[in-house]
Design brief:
The protein is an alpha/beta fold and about 350 residues long. The protein has a domain of about 230 residues: Aldolase class I (TIM Barrel, Alpha-Beta Barrel). It is built from 14 helices and eleven strands. β10 and β11 form a beta hairpin.
Length: about 350
C-alpha cells in the first residue's frame, strides 16, 4: 500500500489525499461527508447557503457520526444589483417554465445570502478542521482568525493570477479548479471564459509559479487521474462528480440515473439556472434558454429566482428542468457506496503506479 503522507494528509489527519468536493445545495449530506471521512479521505459539506446556526447544527451532527476530520466550504458574498427592467426580463424568460409546473413568478426578489462573518464565527466555534472558499477570497484578517483557531484554509483558483492573490492572503492550500470541473466556476478575476484552463495544465502552471501546496480539482474520476495529479505536484485531489452517484449523495435518483447513463461529455457551462457560469448536464431548459439568449440575473439572484422551478422539477422527477451539475468526467460515474469508491480509487492508484514502474 502506498504511503500518502504529505503536507495535506498530515495537516488534516487523513489517510488518503482525497477530498470530497463540498457541493452546496444538498449533494453533500451528513451521510456522504461522514462516509468519506470514515473511509480515510476528507468529507466536506457545502455551507454556502447555510446560516451560522445551521452550520453549528451540521457540525454537531457530523461530529456525532465520526471522530475523523471533516471540512466546510463557504462562498464569498457577491452583493449583486439589478434594475426593475432587468428583473422583468429575467422573469419574462421564465414565464412558460413556471406555468408548466403551476408556479407563480415572484414580484420581487431578496438576496438571502448568509452573512460571511457570522458563518466564519460559527466555523470557529464548531472547531471544524478545514475551511475552503469559493467565488473569491476572504480578508487576511478572516484567514488569520481561522488559523489562530487551528483551522486550515484553502481557496479555489481558476487562473495563475487568482492563485497568486490567494497565496498572498496566506491560505494554506490552493484548489486548482480546472475547466472540466462541475458546478459553479470559481473565477473571480476577469472573464470566466478566459480562465478555462484544464486541470492538469493549470496544476502544472501553478506548481511552477507558487509555493503554496495545490489540490487538483476537475475531471478526476479514478485512481489514474489521482496519480496524474500527484505526479504533476498536487498534494491531493478534490472530487465531486465521482461521488454524486453514491447512495449517500443527496441528489434526485433520476439525476443519478442521468449521470450513470451518460456515455460521453454531455455537459455545458451555463448561467441560465443560477446567474453564474456552472457546468452541468444539458437538458431542455438549458438548451431553450441558451438558444433564445434569455436574460439571467446575476448570482445568487437568478439561483433564488429559479429555485421553485428546480424544486418542482425534482419533485416530479423531471430532469428537463433540473440543474444537474457535474463535471466532464460524468460518464465514468459508478454508483457505488462512498467507502467502496475510496477503496477502489486507492487500489486503482496503486495499480497505476505498478504499470508505470514496470
Amino acid at each position: 500500500m502506498t504511503n500518502f503522507s504529505n503536507p495535506l494528509t498530515k495537516c488534516l489527519g487523513i489517510e488518503f489525499p482525497i477530498l470530497l468536493a463540498p457541493m452546496a445545495g444538498g449533494p453533500t449530506t451528513p451521510q456522504l461527508v461522514t462516509a468519506v471521512s470514515n473511509a480515510g479521505g476528507l468529507g466536506q459539506f457545502g455551507a454556502a447557503y447555510l446560516n451560522d446556526d445551521e452550520i453549528v447544527t451540521m457540525a454537531n451532527q457530523l461530529r456525532a457520526s465520526t471522530n475523523k476530520s471533516f471540512g466546510i466550504n463557504l462562498f464569498l458574498p457577491q452583493n449583486p444589483e439589478y434594475t426593475d427592467q432587468e428583473f422583468s426580463k429575467a422573469t419574462e424568460a421564465l414565464t412558460d417554465y413556471f406555468s408548466k409546473f403551476g408556479l407563480k413568478l415572484p414580484k420581487n426578489i431578496i438576496d438571502t445570502t448568509p452573512n460571511l462573518n457570522q458563518q466564519l464565527k460559527a466555523v470557529i466555534e464548531s472547531d471544524i478542521k478545514f475551511c475552503s472558499f469559493h467565488l473569491g477570497l476572504p480578508t487576511k484578517k478572516n484567514i488569520q482568525e481561522l488559523k489562530e483557531a487551528g483551522i486550515f484554509t484553502a481557496a479555489s483558483a481558476t487562473s495563475v493570477e487568482e492563485a497568486k492573490q490567494a497565496e498572498e492572503k496566506g491560505v494554506d492550500f490552493i484548489i486548482a479548479q480546472g475547466s472540466e470541473a462541475g458546478g459553479h466556476r470559481g473565477t473571480w478575476i476577469g472573464d470566466w471564459r478566459h480562465s478555462m484552463t484544464g486541470t492538469m495544465s493549470l496544476l502544472a502552471q501553478l506548481k511552477a509559479l507558487i509555493s503554496t501546496p495545490i489540490i487538483a480539482a476537475g475531471g478526476i474520476m479514478n485512481g489514474a487521474g489521482i496519480a496524474a495529479a500527484i505526479a504533476l505536484g498536487a498534494v491531493g485531489v478534490q472530487m465531486g462528480t465521482a461521488f454524486l452517484t453514491c447512495p449517500e449523495a443527496g441528489v434526485n435518483d433520476h439525476y443519478k440515473k442521468a449521470l450513470l447513463n451518460t456515455s460521453n461529455d454531455n455537459t455545458i457551462v451555463t448561467r441560465t439556472f443560477s446567474g453564474r457560469p456552472a457546468r452541468g448536464l444539458r437538458n431542455y431548459y438549458i438548451e431553450k434558454m441558451e438558444n433564445s439568449g434569455s436574460y439571467a440575473l446575476p448570482f445568487p439572484l437568478q439561483n433564488i429566482l429559479t429555485g421553485p422551478l428546480r424544486k418542482a422539477a425534482a419533485k416530479e422527477n423531471n430532469t428537463d428542468y433540473m440543474s444537474m451539475w457535474c463535471g466532464q468526467g460524468a460518464s465514468l460515474s459508478r454508483g457505488i457506496p462512498a467507502a467502496k469508491l475510496i477503496e477502489t480509487l486507492v487500489d486503482e492508484y496503486n495499480q497505476t503506479l505498478i504499470k508505470v514502474t514496470n
